[in-house]
Input
Amino acid sequence: MDDIQFQLKAVVKCSSSLDDNDIKLSELNDFMRESAEPLLKRGAPPGCGAEIEGWGVSGEQLKLDLRSDRFVRAHDALIRLKKELGRFLAKYRIGIRGIEIESYEITMNWEEGIKLRRLPFVKELKHSDGRLTLYLDVDYAALEKRIPDRLLRLLEEKKTAASWKGKSEHWELLFESRSERKKSFRFDKDPTEEMVKRGWIRHAAGRGQWIYGPQITRIFRAFERILIEEVLKPLGYEEMVFPKLVPWEVWKRSGHARGIYPEAYYVCAPKTRDPEYWEEVMDYYKVTNEVPLEMIKERIEPVGGMCYAQCPPFWIFLMGKTLPDSILPIRVFDRSGTSHRYESGGLHGIERLDEFHRVEIVWIGTKEQVIEHANELRERYRRIFAEILDIEWREAWVTPWFMAQEGKAGLAELKEVGTVDFEAILPYSGKWLEFQNVSVNGDKYPKGFSVKLQSGKELWSGCSGVGLERWAAVMLAQNGLEPEQWTEGFRRITGELPEVFRFL
Amino acid sequence: MDDIQFQLKAVVKCSSSLDDNDIKLSELNDFMRESAEPLLKRGAPPGCGAEIEGWGVSGEQLKLDLRSDRFVRAHDALIRLKKELGRFLAKYRIGIRGIEIESYEITMNWEEGIKLRRLPFVKELKHSDGRLTLYLDVDYAALEKRIPDRLLRLLEEKKTAASWKGKSEHWELLFESRSERKKSFRFDKDPTEEMVKRGWIRHAAGRGQWIYGPQITRIFRAFERILIEEVLKPLGYEEMVFPKLVPWEVWKRSGHARGIYPEAYYVCAPKTRDPEYWEEVMDYYKVTNEVPLEMIKERIEPVGGMCYAQCPPFWIFLMGKTLPDSILPIRVFDRSGTSHRYESGGLHGIERLDEFHRVEIVWIGTKEQVIEHANELRERYRRIFAEILDIEWREAWVTPWFMAQEGKAGLAELKEVGTVDFEAILPYSGKWLEFQNVSVNGDKYPKGFSVKLQSGKELWSGCSGVGLERWAAVMLAQNGLEPEQWTEGFRRITGELPEVFRFL
Output
C-alpha cells in the first residue's frame, strides 16, 4: 500500500479520575513525552512510525489522537501504548477499564479503475483523486484481533485480482502423447448421449447428477482396479476411509474457507433432534404433500459442506502430531464416497457434474520425496493412458489447484509446488477436458493442520485425484462404447458388460 | 373419526348480479331443491350426506351454508355443487368468478388425553367434553387440493401414534445362533476405544464421524469382498452407482418426506454461483478468520438431504418405466458412498454414527420372487456370520424400516412385508446391536416411483443394508483386534494388516 496513513482517535477509560491531582498530570505529560513517543517509533526507520498528535484528560478518560505511516500502524501503536500506560498508571493504583475507538481512518493510494463497493468493518469508503479513505467501524477487540491488518491484506488481494482480470490462468505444456492415429479417433459422438440411449445411465433427480447402471459401473470399477494394480500397489499405497462431510474447521485449515462458497454444497444439521420441534414440519408436509422450505430453514444450522476436494478432511488424522522421519513417505488413498460441486449451469453430461466419484491419492514426505513421487506417479499414469486406456492426452503446468480453489489465479511462478493437469481432447466437441491432476502442495497441509517431522525438516505433501467419470468421458469419447474398440487389456478387466435392465 | 360434522360457509362470486331478475331467482330455488340437494346426497347411505342449510343471494354473490357428516364431506359437496351450478348459470350467461370460504368448522369426538397444540391450516382448536372443533383457515384452492381430507388423516395418525405411546416397537424372535462358547467371548473391551489407542481410527472434525486408518479399512474391504464372493456373485447381483445427494422429490416418492426431518442432514445449494454475490462472505472470512454463518444462510437454499436410506434415489432409474417380466428378478447393489444421520447425542464409537458406510442391496420381482430371495439372502448371511466372521447373533421380525423412518411405529401385522433385523450382543456392554437387515418392502417403491410390469402383475421389491462399521463393531467386540483370534478364512482375506503411521 503506497503512501498509507492511519488516523486513530481513542479514549482510554480508567478506574479513577486522572485530573484531580496535578502531579499525576505533569507526570502523565512526562510519560507521554519520554516513554510513549519513543515507544511508538521503536523498530521503524528514522522519522517513521506512529506519533501522538494530541492527548487530553477529562475525569477518568484519556483521549488519544494517533497518526502513523505503514511502519508502526496506529492500532499497533495503541496496543503498545495501552500496555505501557497500564504499567505507568499502576503506580497510582489506577487501572485501565477499557478503550473506546472513536474513529479510525486509513488513507492510501488507490487506482481509479478498481471499484470497491463495501468492505467488512468499514462504515464508509471514499475514493477520489487516486486516494482511498476507509472509515472503520471497529472496537478495541477488533484491533487486537488484527482486523485492520487483514483488511489491508484483503485490499492487496483485490488489487492483485484486478490486475489479473482478463488474463487467463497459467498454462504451460509439459508433455504430449503421440501416436499415428492422432487425428482419426474411432468415435465422434457424445458418450453421455450414447449411454443415455443405451440405458447405461439415467439423469438422477438432482442437478448434474446421474444414476449409473451396471455397464458403466463395471467400467468405473475396471478403472479402479487398473489404478490399484498399476499404480497404487506398486508404489506402496494403503487404503483409508476419509470423511465426506466437511466441517468448517477443515476448510479453515485447508484454506477453502477463503473462496469455496459459490461452488460448495452446504450441509446443515437439525438444531435439535426432538420430534416435537419438527412436528409442525411433518404435519405441514402430510397435509399439503409439499416440503415446507421456510420452516425447515428456521430449524437447521450450516455445519460445513459436502466433500469438495477430498483430501482436506484426511488431515485431521494427523493434526497436531509429530511423525518419525523413518515412516516417510506416507502413501494413502481414499475411494469411499462422492464429491459435490455446484457447477455452472447447463447440461454437460458426465464431463461436468455436481456429483462425481474420485479416487484421491495422498503422499507425504520430505520435499525431495514428494517431488520425486509426483514424477513416479505421472510415469505410471502415462503407461495406463497409453497402453490400457489407449487415449491421446497432454500434460500442462497450471495454477495450483488449492490456489484456484481459494479464489486465487494468475501465474504459477513456483517451479516445485504446483499442479500438473492431464487433458484430453473430446473428438465429438473438439474441446479439451482436464481429466486428472498430480499436485505437489508444498508444506501447505502439514502447516495448516500442524503436522511436524521429528527431525524438524520441512514436511511436504502431494495429492492426485482420479475422477472416474472424467476417465470414462475421455476414454469413451475417443474409443466409443463398443468393447471391440477397446484394448484387449481393458476388455479383459471389464469382462463382458452386464445386461440387467430392459424397458418397454 | 366418530360422529364427525362439517359446517362450511362459502360465497360464490358470479360475473353478474343474480337478483335483478325474479325468474332467475325462482329458477335458482328450483335448482337448489331439485338438482343440488340430491347431488349432495349421492352415494351416501339413506339419510346421510351433505345438505344445504341455507342460501341467499345478494347482488353477484350467492351465499351457501353447507353441513355434512362423513359421507359427503362439506368441501366435497361444495366442489360438486360448483360444477353443477356453473352449468346451470351458464344458461343465463353468468359465470362463476370464484369462491370465498367464510368459515369451515369440523367437529368430532376426541379423547381428552391426546393433546394437540396446533395444526396446519387450522386457526383455532377447541377441545371440550370429548369433542374437538377445528376452525379451518382455508381458501377454495385448499379444498380442491384435499387439504381437509389430509388433515383428518393426520389426526387419525396422531390418534394411532398416541395409542402406541409407551408400547415398544414390534419385535419377534425368528432365529438364534448357537455355539458352545456362547457365554465366553474372546474379548470384553470396547473396540472403538481399542482402535483409538492403536491409532487405527481417529475422531474426525464432525459429529459422530471417524477417519479410518489402513488397518480397519482393510477389514472393511474384507467384509465387502466376502459379501461379493459369498452373497452377491452367487445370487447374480450386478453393481450400480446410486446418487448420494437426495433431492426432495426422491423423499416425497419414497415416503421419507413424511418423517425424516429430525434425523436428516440437509443439503443446501448456493442461490447463485456469481462470485460477486459471495464476495461479502469471502471478505468477511478473510478479515476475521470466521465463517459468517448468518450471511451464508441468506445465500443458500435447501435442495434435499444427504443419503439416509441409500436405495430411494436408485428408483429414479426405473421411474415411469414398464419392465418386461422376463428380466425379473432384478438384483443390483451400490457401495459408492456414505450415509448420514443426525443421531442422538453422546458418543457411541463406531456403533452409532452420523456418517457411515453401507453396501445397499436391492432386488425387484414378483411377490413370490422377492419373498423367496429374501430368504436366500438370510441363509447366505448366516453362513458368513457363522463360518467366516464367527459371531453369535439372533434375527427378529420388526416394524418395517420404512414405517419407522416415516415416523410410524407399532405392530408389524403383516407377515410378508417387513424387516428382519440381525442383532448381536456386544460383550463389553452386554447390549444388543442391530447390525444388518433384510427387508421385503412390498409394492411400496414400484408404486411410489410408478414402475410397472408388462404382465400387469404386482411388482415388489426388497432391500438389505450391510453397514461396514456395524459388522466391524460386532465382529471386533466379540473376537477382539488380534488377527490370531479370527477365523483362518477371515485372516486369509484381510492379509497382514498394514502399518503405515506411527506418532511420537
About this structure: Chain B touches chain A through 114 residues (CB under 8 Å). The two ends of chain B are 69 Å apart (CA to CA). Chain B has two domains: 4-163, 169-235+308-494. Residues 169-235+308-494 of chain B form a domain with the BirA Bifunctional Protein; domain 2 fold (CATH 3.30.930.10).
